[in-house]
Design a protein that fits this description.
single chain; 428 residues; mainly alpha; three-stranded antiparallel β-sheet; 6 strands
Length: 428
Amino acid sequence: MAAIPLLKHDITISAYGAASDGQPDARFLLALGDSHYLVSAKARALVLALCGAPASDAQLEADYARHSGSRLPAGQLITLAHRTLPAALFVGAPDAPRAMPFTVSATLLPAAWVARITAGLTWLFTPALALLLLLVLAVLHGLALPLAMHQVHAAWSGAETAALVGLFLLSGLLHELGHTTACRYFKCPHGAIGFGLYFVFPAWYADVSKAWRLAPRQRAVVDLGGVYFEAVLLIFVDAFALATGNPLAFKLVWLITFAMLFTLNPVFKFDGYWLLSDLSGLHNLHQKMRQTLSGWLGAVFKQPPGPAEIPRRWLLYSYTLLSAGYFLYFATFLFNEAQTIAATLPDTLRHAGHRLGAAVGQHDGLAASLALLHLLMALLWPAVILTASLFFIDKLRRALVELVAGVAAARAAARAARAALALTRPAP
């Protein structure tokens, strides 16, 4: 008989969600350090039995029966533990590495600093106040956004672009403070705030991993906390832009609005993805979307349906269609922007080059610096479109690889089903 495995002593288990029509079995949240795992009631019973450090097979079977209400042989329980439980739970195994979606990243505000800031901001999440602020935003933004959409197409000077980039980055910091303040409002601990490169795009991030301990609606508030803080910021920016007519303010209105809408899209793993996941109770949406596509392909190739039903299939169908539509929109946007850049960039670079050459020829250091800044600003948007195109092509390549694999799997399953049917037919 195999030895009974030992689990680490600092594992905690809490209720995650009750059984519902979308999730027939109750689930539990298993936490170890900064890592969190969703487990079934049976897996919870197995972990609790092993955490008691049973001294014999009989004790393991009894402990499991006490926590689960059913009895299994000790050998089967040990096999299940090694096959189904995360390796990081076992004594002697290294902790699971922290998954970070960034090329490089660095902490800028330690958790203690963030805690001091959020302690004085939780009042903003008072429901009545939040509703009032959102109503004020709806009025002001309805007036400011049309003007902002007109201003954004006007020429951007180098100094204006630099100022907008700086202000936009500060709004990103405020966004992350919204997430951490929402955690603080629900008395959930949070971590630090940092800055990194997501693929090649600069991005803020906040450690709110312990929000998994909250109820689904509370997690949804944490998901929306960043956008909510940006909405509060927009109230002041909208008011200033409308009162002064400042073009810079209107362009900032457009930038923040674009960022808010982009982060709410549920396709990439941004706030919108986690919001949909928390409200629906469905996790690993990308994986479930691939399962949905496999089901569609199976129907095309007349593959027998699998035994397991995916809960809330209608939501996954909608999510799959939304993802396909978003990818199509994103591809169209990149193609149109690339065409515009190809038509206008040569003249822009020629003008910037002449300006820089004239300043250098006149030995005017200030003018040369400004001309160089203008040239760099002219290259900024093309660089963003290029990197976004590379990012999109990589995502599309992976999706096509998975689609081809799904087609092959569906065909193979259909052939196997037909072969099995032929073998079971009676001889004539």
